[in-house]
Amino acid sequence: MNWENPAAAQTASRAAAVGHRPGQPVVRAAGWREPPSPPGHFLIGNAPELKSDVLGFIVQAHRDYGDVIRLRFPFVRAYLAAHPDDIRHILQDNHDNYTKNNIDYRLLKGGLGDGLLTSDGPYWLRQRRLIQPMFRRERIAQFGVLMAQAARHLADDWEGHARRGEPFDVAAEMTRVTLAIVARALFSVEIAQDAAVISQSLTTMNESMAQAGFAALLPFLPTRTNRRIRAAKRALDRVIYRIIAQRRAHPGHCDDLLSLLLFARDPQTGKTLSDRQVRDEVATFLLAGHETTANALAWTWYLLGCNPDAEDRLHAELAEVLGGRAPCVADLPRLRYTAMVIDESMRLYPPAWAFSRSNLEDDEIGGYRIKRGSLIYISQYVTHRHPAFWEDPGRFDPERFTPERVAVRPKYAYFPFAGGPRACIGSQFALTEAALILATLAQRYRLRLAPGHRVEMQPLITLRPRHGVKVVAHPLR
Fold first, then answer.
1. 3-state SS, residue 368
2. Which one, out of 190, 199, 238, 247, has a CA that is 20 to 30 A from the CA of 348?
3. For 67, phi and psi rounded to 5 degrees?
């Protein structure tokens, strides 16, 4: 075995045992064994390492102990699964055995409620089927008009920054534009007057829920974190319930997600959704509908600023395909390098960097026994750096996503939107939005990191740049 890289060695031995090629199922080893585990504190396990540097710890643990590892926590059996075939098993092949009914999603429900992201079982399936029509291809094309228009307005707004040569936070700008887009596209509202309240409330809940630990599962405890979560939720609820009340009072002819939620009826009972149920879906889509795309774009601008050769190629493609005109949805199939830049950015800095499932019955993952009721973590951040599938994984290289190279990798070596039946419903919305915003802004500006600004990761529920990404915009025309 290659003791310097157990993860790669285990993958190679699995493949050799069955003549495995990337993308084919792996024949799993017989027997019931416990996965290896990093050493931890005798009482609190790996909690100190996870608190101080969760990303560094799980990447190193994968390198040291392999594709399935036991994480030491008090009161719960927890594991990390990193091999694409095991991830496919959990999310796709055996998905009926895995649920979101666990400690992590109960924590999320404290802020988001019982929406599509956090719900499970028959209720989730009904909501998914109800909402699915809003994300069909033809609707995405319609939303693309709003996306392109918002991107052009933002490009115009940046003229003043560029003319004065003043630094600004492009991460905050991506949050502003994506929040405006999701509010208009899905709820037909202009969010400018409430943008600061919504953004701050979601940020507070994101930070507090990520840091709260077990205290947030007991919301009645008067901890500082629980008080912050409750205050942020109240502020967000005032905005959402006002939007709901206004639409109920003046339904008009809006053909959007809000109307779909308000006027849909349960086929068995004939009842409509309560305001609370509608609120939970609106809160979910306000967060998930802008947060992930905003973070993906913030990291994309950072990576382009650090890799001028890739940036030059992006600008060359935009000039060739667009010829100076503004991009639209019809241009996206030809903006192939633009899409590869976004894919590679989400490989290195996946907006959703980890999530969990719990198994209803005993299972076998990578040859190890996983008892029912365990907490199984899957981390895009780890698997997107798996040395068996990504050569020099820390390097920014959009060429990894040419069709030829994608075809020879296992599907779940790259899964920024999760996978299986619970894959993100808004993935095409997000990718279309990201491509149009990137193409529109990169067509007009070259962004450079502001001198002295330090960019570092902040792994909350999503992967944010801790201090933003401050840049200076240089006009291209």
1. strand
2. 199
3. -80, -20
pLDDT at 3: 33
Residue ranges of the domains in the chain? Answer: 6-22+37-475
Report pLDDT for 334.
98
The C-alpha atoms of residue 365 and residue 347 are separated, in whole angstroms, by: 24
Per-residue pLDDT at 325:
95
Region 397-419: mean pLDDT is 97
- Report the CATH number of the 6-22+37-475 domain: 1.10.630.10
Per-residue pLDDT tens digits for 19-64: 333 333 344 444 568 899 999 888 889 988 988 899 999 999 999 9
Beta strands (DSSP E) in 82-167 are 98-99
pLDDT more than 90, % of the chain? 74
**pLDDT, tens digit, for every residue of 370-403?**
999 999 999 999 999 999 999 999 999 999 999 9
pTM of the full structure: 0.91
| Per-residue 3-state assignment (H helix, E strand, C coil) for the chain | CCCCCHHHHHHHHHHHHHCCCCCCCCCCCCCCECCCCCCCECCCECHHHHHHHHHHHHHHHHHHHCCEEEEEECCEEEEEECCHHHHHHHHHHCHHHEECCCHHHHHHHHHHCCCCCCCCHHHHHHHHHHHHHHHCHHHHHHHHHHHHHHHHHHHHHHHHHHHHCCCEEHHHHHHHHHHHHHHHHHHCCCCHHHHHHHHHHHHHHHHHHHHHHHHHHCCCCCCHHHHHHHHHHHHHHHHHHHHHHHHHHCCCCCCCHHHHHHHCECCCCCCECCHHHHHHHHHHHHHHHHHHHHHHHHHHHHHHHHCHHHHHHHHHHHHHHHCCCCCCHHHHHHCHHHHHHHHHHHHHCCCCCCEEEEECCCEEECCEEECCCCEEEECHHHHCCCCCCCCCCCCCCHHHHCHHHHHCCCHHHCCCCCCHHHCCCCHHHHHHHHHHHHHHHHCCEEEEECCCCCCCEEECCCEEECCCCEEEEEECC
Q: Is the pLDDT of residue 14 over 60?
A: no
